[in-house]
Amino acid sequence: MFKRTSMCAAAVLMAVFAVQSVAEGLPDFTELVERNSPSVVKITTTTEVTQTRSSGQQQEVPEIFRYFFGDQLPDNFNYQPNPRPRQGLGSGFILSEDGYILTNNHVVDHTDEVTVTLTDGTEYEAELIGTDPQSDVALLKIDGSDLHAVKIGSSEQLKVGEWVLAIGSPFNFDYSVTAGIVSAKGRALGGADRYVPFIQTDVAINPGNSGGPLFNLDGEVVGINSQIYTRSGGFMGVSFAIPIDIAMDIADQLKETGTVERGWLGVEMYPPFNENPELAQSMGLDRAEGALVARVFDGSPAADGGIQTDDIILSFNDQPVRRYSDLPPLVGQVRPGTTVEVEVLRGGDRRTLDVTIGVLNEQELAAGNPQQPTSDNPLNIIVADVEGSDGVRVERVLAGPALEAGLRDGDIITMLGGEFINDKEEFDRLVTQLPDNGAVAVRVLRGNNIVYLAIPTD
Q: How do residues 38-64 score in pLDDT, each as one tens digit?
């Protein structure tokens, strides 16, 4: 009996020591949080809602009017409600002691008033210095001094598997802390964010975290928490952050000029190439890697630098190009006027070209492009599969009902007419079954927010 008791006690002690051993190997975030929380701010936005109603729309009149008047409302009766301002919530962090603050563009986009709240409860009305929708970065300024600024790190030096920590205000819970690891780097999500090679983490991010900082264990900001992958609107283990190296370059430009200049190469790529090993082998590659050039724009930097149709771009500015989606972020990061080396495969031979990068102006480019995009569905939108997740990403919203209903480039459609969307094939099937002269309910993931839209189908 004594022997059995001793063995049980020994087993318990071994288990305790094992737990202590594991715990001692985990990072302690307490000092990091205490030191950096004062640099994190809560951002509250207010948007005035204007609402007009045409006469005769009695189905939109409050029930109390119908109770007293029934169907006897006069034809010229026009109910004008007092719409309440729409509130928004996000996070941000202090860049400098004099009050510059970095956050996401989608946190402050199309808002009338932005309020910044510090950890001590002090509130400031913020000035919007500038935004860059393509990278989802916005720069704010508050009238403060001696503020607690963050220490900026390097996203380039960040390693997969490294511990990271987020501080923000999810669901309006002030200064919540979550931690995880870097799951991957260089994630290309396409759509309006095609110029951002996202950092993927498993840090719990929810609505309200958008714009908040992602810290490494040295207490340095390495990213801006921006997006999540979700079916429910809540965290599902996959979140994305904008690399701080890119965000700071954009912030510097916004501070200097209020706008952002982005590099332009001037090629149109062929995305199916990366899914076609046979095609790659026929062109002299062992694997379907690189970006196949389907078109070179006349007068573009690519044309001037000697890039030709059917070239396969293998590297750009000493960075490998594994997939077509790797190229736009690499080009976008280069300041216009810079000459870079571009390695291409042409006719089975590798060659290196010197290309001087130009300035991206998408409006002028679209205006000068004779091959305007077209859609083959009644919503008049162009969609593509979302790499690694369900739904379809809206690549372009053309003139029509979806644009008028508020659908945006970069939105992820997760449900159409009550049915979940897994991929583009399913979207194409469902969109052909839409009723005429009606409307379809569309569930959209926009940043960290779930948005429902009613799009007419007449």
A: 999 999 998 876 654 444 444 455 555
pTM for this prediction: 0.68
Q: Where in the chain is the domain with CATH 2.30.42.10?
A: 263-359, 375-456
Superfamily of domain 375-456: PDZ domain (2.30.42.10)
In the predicted model, residues of the chain with pLDDT beneath 70 are 1-25, 49-84, 190-193, 230-235, 362-375, 437, 458
Q: Range(s) for CATH 2.40.10.10 in the chain?
A: 37-141, 154-246
HSE toward the beta carbon, residue 271, CA cutoff 13 A: 8
Beta strand 291-296 with 312-316: parallel, antiparallel or unpaired? antiparallel
Question: 154-246 adopts what CATH topology?
Answer: Thrombin, subunit H (2.40.10)
Q: Which residues of 343-353 are buried (b: 16+ CB within 10 A; e: fewer)?
A: bbbbeeeeeeb
Closest by CA to 215, choosing from 205, 207, 224, is: 224
Please say whether the beta carbons of 219 and 164 come within 8 A. no
- From residue 205, how far is each of 14, 48, 168, 179, 183 by CA, in Å? 36, 28, 9, 10, 14
- Domain covering 37-141 in this structure, CATH number: 2.40.10.10
Query: What CATH number was assigned to the domain covering residues 263-359?
Result: 2.30.42.10
Show Cβ contacts of residue 2 under 8 Å, excluding neighbours closer than 6 positions.
Answer: none
Q: Which residues are catalytic?
A: 106, 136, 210
Q: Which residue has the tokens 């008028």?
A: 404
Structural tokens at position 351? 């060659």
